[in-house]
Amino acid sequence: xxxxxxxxxxxxxxxxxxxxxxxxxxxxxxxxxxxxxxxxxxxxxxxxxxxxxxxxxxxxxxxxxxxxxxxxxxxxxxxxxxxxxxxxxxxxxxxxxxxxxxxxxxxxxxxxxxxxxxxxxxxx
Length: 124
Prior knowledge:
Elements: E1 2-7, E2 10-13, E3 18-26, E4 28-39, E5 46-51, E6 57-59, E7 67-72, E8 77-82, E9 91-102, E10 108-114, E11 118-123
Parallel strand pairs: 2-11
Antiparallel strand pairs: 1-3, 3-8, 4-5, 4-9, 5-6, 7-8, 9-10, 9-11
């Protein structure tokens, strides 16, 4: 049906950069907001950044000025450029999309869909 597939995670040194990508595919009718959350070990999942259809941004304070979110609406893809990485950025990063799609009986479903997560590890 619908999939969100993330890529770009890995290992970086403190002060380095990584770029995450997340592409949506399937019987998607429309995507509204896309974004990223992260979950560090033994911590709750937290918002990183979101971007709406009209380009409005919401960036979490811990990453403001270091992370940039962008989106290719036609390609149903959201990106997260992460610069000046810190060890505390180490986490599993999950993308999401608020979307409307057709299920297996062609009914319209509106819900938030999540990717499988990609691990980012920042060494000091």
